[in-house]
Specification:
Blueprint (H helix, E strand, L loop, with lengths): L2 E10 L9 E6 L4 E7 L6 H20 L9 H29 L8 E8 L5 E7 L3 E6 L2 E4 L6 H7 L5 H6 L19 E6 L5 E5 L1 H4 L4 H10 L3 H14 L6 E10 L1
Antiparallel strand pairs: 1-10, 2-3, 3-4, 4-5, 5-8, 6-7, 6-9, 9-10
Helix pairs in contact: 1-2, 6-7
Length: about 260
C-alpha cells in the first residue's frame, strides 16, 4: 500500500501583536512542513523564525531526495527520516547563529521550531521540535501531543511540583529552557513512527495553544473535516479568546493511494 499526504498552513498576527514573528515553510509534494515562532522580547525574533523555517525546510528537502541506499521498509525509512529531520534542525540552528554573529543588532535572537515529514511509499514519518511549539496527532478520534515543551513550567510539571491547571496559568509559562539560535546548541527532540490513513498531524505555535485547550482543538478538528476550513476556524477561535500572540498552524493529512 502507498500513501498520499496533503498539507495546509495558515498564520495570523493575532489581536495584540503589531508584527507576526511566526513563520511556516511547506513543501507539499514532499510532505514536509515546518512552523517556527520567534522569541518575543528578543531582537530579531521574526528574522530568526524565517531563517530557521527556510533552512530547515530546504535542507530536509535535499536530504529526502537523496538516494536512500535500499531503504524500503517502514522501520528503516522512519529512522532515515528521523536522522534527516535532526540534521535539518541542526542546520537551521547554525544558520540563525551565523546571522546573529554577523549582525550585532540581532545578537540573542532565537526561535522555537516544530517540523514534520512523511514518506508516501511506506507511510513512515518523523517529527522534530525545539521549544514550545507543538505537534499533535489526531487518529480515530484520539488527539495526542507528540512533543514535550522545553519550558520551565513543563519541567516543574514533570516533577509533580505544579498541577496541569497551574501550569496553564503560570506567570512563567513561556519561559523556554532551550530554543534555536542561542549560543548553546539545543537538544533536538525527534519522534518517528508510522502513519495510518485518516491521520491528521497538527503543528502549531503557542499562540494557538495558549488560547485554546487541547479538547477544544480536538473538537474543532472533528467538526471540520476540510483542513483549510479547520485552520481558519482554529485561528478565528484563538482570536475570539483574545488573540494575545501570533497564531500559526499546519495540518498534514494522511490518505491512501
Amino acid at each position: 500500500m502507498s500513501y498520499s499526504f496533503t498539507i495546509s498552513g495558515l498564520s495570523h498576527v493575532g489581536r495584540v501583536r503589531r508584527r507576526n514573528e511566526d513563520s511556516l515553510s511547506i513543501e507539499p509534494e514532499l510532505a514536509i512542513a515546518f512552523v517556527t515562532d520567534g522569541m518575543g522580547g528578543h531582537p530579531g525574533g521574526d528574522v530568526a523564525s524565517r531563517i530557521a523555517a527556510l533552512h530547515a525546510c530546504r535542507t530536509l528537502t535535499e536530504l529526502v531526495q537523496e538516494p536512500r541506499r535500499s531503504v524500503h521498509d517502514r522501520d528503516n525509512t522512519a529512522r532515515f527520516l528521523a536522522d534527516a529531520m535532526e540534521r535539518s534542525v541542526a542546520v537551521a540552528h547554525a544558520a540563525v547563529r551565523q546571522r546573529s554573529e554577523t549582525e550585532p543588532h540581532l545578537k540573542g535572537m532565537g526561535t522555537t521550531l516544530v517540523g514534520w515529514v512523511g514518506d508516501p511509499s511506506t507511510g513512515a514519518y518523523a517529527m522534530g521540535h525545539v521549544g514550545d511549539s507543538r505537534g499533535y496527532r489526531l487518529r480515530a478520534g484520539n488527539f495526542e501531543s507528540l512533543t514535550r515543551d522545553d519550558t520551565w513550567v513543563q519541567d516543574r510539571l514533570d516533577h509533580d511540583l505544579i498541577s496541569v491547571e497551574e501550569a496553564r496559568r503560570h506567570r512563567y509559562g513561556h519561559m523556554l529552557t532551550q530554543c534555536i539560535g542561542l549560543e548553546e546548541p539545543p537538544k533536538i527532540h525527534v519522534v518517528e513512527g508510522h502513519t495510518a490513513p485518516g491521520d491528521r498531524f497538527l503543528l502549531c505555535t503557542d499562540g494557538l495553544i495558549g488560547m485554546m485547550k487541547d479538547w477544544e482543538i480536538r473538537t474543532t478538528l472533528l467538526e471540520h473535516d476540510d483542513d483549510d476550513e479547520a485552520l481558519r476556524v482554529l485561528i478565528d477561535r484563538a482570536n475570539e479568546e483574545g488573540g494575545k500572540d501570533n497564531i500559526t498552524a499546519v495540518l498534514a493529512r494522511v490518505g491512501e493511494e
